[in-house]
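Task: sequence design from structure.
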């Protein structure tokens, strides 16, 4: 039910990996609901430190100056475009001044790794755990001697009378006192390190949009954590924010964010996005500010690149965002609704089992070219009262909350679609969700509580569908259970 070429294209278009390398990486996965993996907390912190430097370099021909960001089992591999990006990373390295305080990011290390540089942290910076130590491998432009650049930087530090402190082979004790947060980049970035890492792992997103002229990234401390700001320069009048939002809110290839607000004018467009509640390492808001760049008439405006991740077709001169989830943008499909119910006793089918069954059934329909959806009734999540380890001491408020909407479950061959919506179990919320789903999708599966009966709030106006169309051998029809499978969920067709 997956097209390896399709999902490889979707990932490679955002990371810059080769298609062959992406296929090999994705071929080892058992699930394809997260094509660009999220980094663990310590790894994300290291990547955010590097992203903060790469995002501030001027004159970059590619976003962040990164040509490729390849996720590895042991971390991340970056291939930068110019020597200027390497100099920016070397500027982060810590050194001890002859007189005065330390400079650079304390605890950051670097060493030669063949033709690449290996960046990492000293053990007292990150939490000791079963996970491997964080590492980012950096490769430079063709024929660039990275070892010579590192040696020249070290010689420059020594010539100024300072001592380099970034060699991991030379032990260095941690500081006796914690630096103030206003001076410690690590303490600031720890609050929303996952957000910076997510941006660095998708560098080619920005130049896939219309009129790309450059991006710069900055951070700002807030009362709830650390905000990231992307200033995007655009040649031409098309900001292309609809496609940008669709990628940033996507869970499969994008960052899984939610829109807080979106305001557009003639010369500037600003969108703010926040993470889902309860996510560690995401205590911040991402602000993307798109501005018209000052360009001469002879500068050619770059067109948008088709993005497989959001359903763009190759060869389309001006791809548009997928309108399948936008109210009123598609004709009324009059989709049929099927409800899955559990057995009303303790040994019955659990909600997670029903959700998994519903996803598999809907995936088969999606591969047949149908727009399908799963509506899952779910009580409000009760979060345990553990303190977020990424919450800084200066955080006095919560991250702005957002409303959950439709979420894509997987990438399907066109024109198929597969979406999920979680709603509260009250009848009004379910009715509204079903009304929208029937207009937007061809087939809808409703998963209710284990003690629910089918919702009879309105006639669905579609002929009944037999469960036999999707459940295969050993299937059940109506509300009866198969004697061969006593714990299988009854299927009610409506």
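Answer:
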């Amino acid at each position: 039910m997956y097209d390896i070429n399709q999902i490889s294209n979707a990932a490679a278009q955002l990371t810059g990996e080769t298609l062959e390398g992406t296929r090999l990486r994705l071929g080892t996965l058992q699930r394809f609901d997260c094509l660009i993996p999220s980094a663990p907390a310590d790894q994300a912190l290291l990547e955010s430190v590097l992203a903060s430097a790469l995002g501030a370099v001027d004159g970059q021909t590619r976003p962040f100056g990164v040509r490729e960001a390849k996720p590895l089992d042991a971390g991340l591999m970056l291939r930068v475009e110019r020597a200027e990006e390497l100099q920016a990373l070397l500027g982060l390295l810590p050194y001890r001044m002859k007189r005065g305080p330390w400079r650079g990011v304390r605890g950051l290390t670097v060493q030669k790794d063949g033709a690449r540089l290996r960046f990492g942290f000293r053990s007292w910076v990150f939490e000791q755990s079963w996970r491997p130590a964080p590492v980012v491998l950096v490769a430079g432009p063709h024929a660039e001697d990275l070892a010579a650049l590192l040696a020249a930087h070290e010689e420059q530090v020594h010539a100024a009378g300072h001592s380099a402190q970034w060699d991991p082979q030379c032990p260095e004790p941690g500081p006796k006192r914690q630096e103030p947060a206003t001076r410690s980049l690590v303490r600031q970035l720890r609050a929303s390190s996952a957000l910076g890492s997510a941006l660095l792992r998708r560098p080619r997103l920005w130049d896939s949009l219309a009129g790309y002229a450059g991006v710069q990234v900055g951070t700002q401390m807030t009362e709830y954590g650390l905000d990231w700001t992307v200033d995007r320069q655009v040649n031409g009048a098309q900001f292309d924010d609809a496609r940008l939002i669709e990628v940033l809110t996507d869970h499969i290839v994008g960052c899984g964010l939610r829109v807080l607000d979106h305001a557009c004018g003639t010369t500037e467009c600003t969108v703010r996005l926040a993470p889902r509640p309860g996510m560690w390492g995401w205590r911040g808001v991402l602000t993307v500010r798109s501005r018209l760049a000052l360009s001469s008439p002879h500068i050619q405006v770059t067109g948008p690149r088709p993005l497989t991740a959001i359903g763009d077709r190759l060869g389309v001169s001006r791809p548009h965002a997928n309108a399948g989830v936008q109210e009123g943008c598609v004709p009324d499909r009059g989709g049929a609704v099927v409800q899955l119910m559990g057995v009303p006793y303790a040994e019955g089918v659990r909600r997670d089992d029903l959700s998994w069954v519903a996803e598999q059934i809907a995936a088969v329909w999606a591969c047949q070219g149908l727009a399908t959806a799963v509506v899952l009734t779910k009580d409000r999540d009760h979060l345990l009262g553990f303190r977020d380890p990424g919450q800084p001491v200066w955080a006095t408020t919560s991250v702005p909350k957002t409303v959950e909407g439709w979420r894509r479950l997987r990438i399907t061959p066109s024109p198929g679609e597969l979406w999920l919506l979680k709603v509260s179990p009250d009848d009004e919320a379910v009715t509204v969700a079903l009304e929208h789903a029937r207009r937007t999708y061809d087939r809808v599966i409703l998963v209710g509580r284990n003690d629910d009966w089918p919702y009879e709030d309105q006639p669905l106006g579609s002929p009944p569908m037999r469960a036999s169309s999707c459940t295969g051998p050993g299937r059940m029809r109506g509300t009866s259970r198969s004697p061969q499978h006593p714990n299988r969920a009854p299927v009610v067709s409506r």
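DSSP finds eleven helices and 19 strands in the chain.
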